[in-house]
Amino acid sequence: MNKFFLFPFVIFLILIKQGQSQDDVNFFDYWKFYSDIENSMYKSSCALAFQQLDDRIAAMEQLHSKSDYLNRQKLVKEKLLHMMGPLPEKTPLNARVTDIIKKDDYRIEKVIYESLPGYYVTAALFLPKKRKGKVPAIIYASGHSANGFRSETYQHIIINLVKKGFVVLAFDPIGQGERLQYYNEKEGKSRFGPTIEHSYPGAQCYISGYSPTKYFVWDGMRSVDYLLSRKEVDPNRIGMTGRSGGGTQTAYIAAIDDRILAAAPECFITSMEYVLKSIGPQDAEQNLFHMLSEGVDHADLIEVRAPKPTLMITTTRDFFSIQGARETFREAKGFYKALGGEEFMNMVEDDSIHASTKKNREAMYAFFQKYLDNPGSSEDIEVDVLKEEELYSTNTGQLATSFKGETIFSLNEKLVRDQVAKLKTDRASEDLDDHIVSVRNSAKNLSGFKYQENFGKAVFSGRYVKSNYVLEKYLIPGDGDYMLPAALFIPVGKNKSKEIVILLDEKGMEHAANKDSLVHSILKQSSSVLLFDVRGIGSLGPGYLKGDAYIDNTSYNQWFAGIMTNKSIVGMRVEDIVRIIHFIKTEVGDNETISAISTGACGSELLHAAVFNDNIQKVCLINPFVSFADIALSHEYTPAFIPSTVAGAIEKYDLSDLMAAICPRKLMIINPLKSDGSPKGKDKEWHYFKFSDIVYTQKSVKENFKCLVVDDNLRDDAVIRWLK
Length: 724
Known about the structure:
Blueprint: H1 3-21, H2 40-60, H3 66-84, E1 96-102, E2 106-116, E3 119-128, E4 135-141, H4 152-163, E5 167-171, E6 183-184, E7 189-190, H5 194-208, H6 213-228, E8 233-243, H7 245-256, E9 262-266, H8 272-277, H9 298-303, E10 310-315, H10 322-338, E11 345-350, H11 358-371, H12 399-402, H13 408-429, H14 432-447, E12 459-465, E13 469-477, E14 483-491, E15 499-505, H15 509-514, H16 518-523, E16 528-532, E17 550-551, E18 554-555, H17 556-565, H18 569-588, E19 593-599, H19 603-612, E20 616-622, H20 628-632, H21 655-661, E21 666-670, H22 690-698, E22 705-708, H23 715-723
Parallel strand pairs: 4-5, 4-8, 8-9, 9-10, 10-11, 15-16, 15-19, 19-20, 20-21, 21-22
Antiparallel strand pairs: 1-2, 2-3, 3-5, 6-7, 12-13, 13-14, 14-16, 17-18
Helix pairs in contact: 2-17, 5-13, 6-7, 14-21, 18-19, 19-21, 21-22
């Protein structure tokens, strides 16, 4: 053969070999229209949120008479209390003064009191030296400073207020100042910053079914109780203010506690539309459970107080949108007018960033001087601030080392254990079939999953013919402005199986196709394999929004959006999986048997999908976490698991209940993980699988439920045996 002919032939063989070693499952370099595809999950949440906000506006437009507005107030108050979760019973504060600092014209009492038994609050009470009778008092809530109210910025405001004749109580929010929850004694600091100190345990509260806002609000309400226990304080002249996170606390606490006469939240109030379009949902305590689906926005936090005096303190370049603040102010002003108190609703703005400005501080001083009846100069004066350690209420500067009291985690842990006990009782007392029906309904409602009606037209996107298989690419319409990429691997040969295995890889279909052996191991057994990505995974994620609670490459903030809209990430992804199933049944072959495999945390999504869609005949979970309760009960857990959890699930169902719900279909779990991401090993009791094992046994199909711990190099063989 001519050497000039051989050379291109050799090149051709090399290219074929290269093509077999790498499978092209890229879609969106070609489909330019979908260039924003990685934001599909967050934008789906936003689209739903905007509709819910529009519904709220429509409801507000129906308010006409004074009684309409009063009924709206009552409704909102009830919703706020419900969304925060039931507030605790009041218990003794057991307040103690640990030290006193005397200044020329004021003194500071360093205080500790118990918001709940063993749940300590560190605070400082600033008392003006010259007083005539009972005087007005202001609670100061600090923003997300690691040292709480001891920051120079907050001390400047507090000392200005006390020099103007106000008693001021400044307390540490949980996770800040002396109340760090994840304090490392050797390093002398928390392993997290303040926002993560809130969101890491806050996520566990959400899994249990309520917002951690409850604890922040309760601390504020008990702080009012402490103020009212002081003989120096006039109980009818209580105010509250704070900036940033302190603005959040001020808004929520003043909305709930009627004893707060005047409130001045600073650098927080805007509107949720503009929050979602800019910085995104913030750390845990700022997001109420189902807030948007219940039709509540920032304006409601003010309107529920009307006509009590309120001052919105804003800046034009704040990351809390000034446009949202202006729109909220206009709405609230109208609400106050309807209740005959238009003059009590005010707003000040300055041209600055997210910061305290002289103009805004002086407006705040004047506001409290007027409405708490304490006249005087509103000039912002220079003051001497104290060193941080001078204001410690504990001996060590941390409750963690001085008192070792309760934390958000420990408080929630007790609740979760009660919920787990209740779930176990339900499993034992209910008829199994009735329990399974209840589980299916609860999983659907709590995840926000909805059965789809419109599926659209799949788009064929190319074919590659290999030596032993064919690769076809499709775009499958999602339920919004996005497409689901799917790559169908079809084995070549006479013995081709009628089985299609769908595979959802937590790292995405690109990883499954080219960095994992499982796809080609299955193809060798003559079964077709369909790879796909769902919202937030692979080519459809993670999106631009990281947020202020971004932990180990996981955006809690995107998960918070789903909690506010009552449409979880799990629910969204399950709807995507159902679309994939519909594509197979309508366009690939209605006679195909569908088996499903997941790798990693998205085993939760696959279990939900199998419960909602019985076209999935077999389920295999590789390296899954195994329980929502396991995460909520672990002081240390893996953040990557959070997006695959369902808020509020624990009392109604856990993953073991979903496993039971797909009985008698085949289910295999390979190398399950503990909540911290480490291998679970061969747990003697496999207690998180106990209920599902009982159900499979009672249904006489015990052999269809398997849990395996295998070496990674034996994983593919285990899957192949399961498929057979």
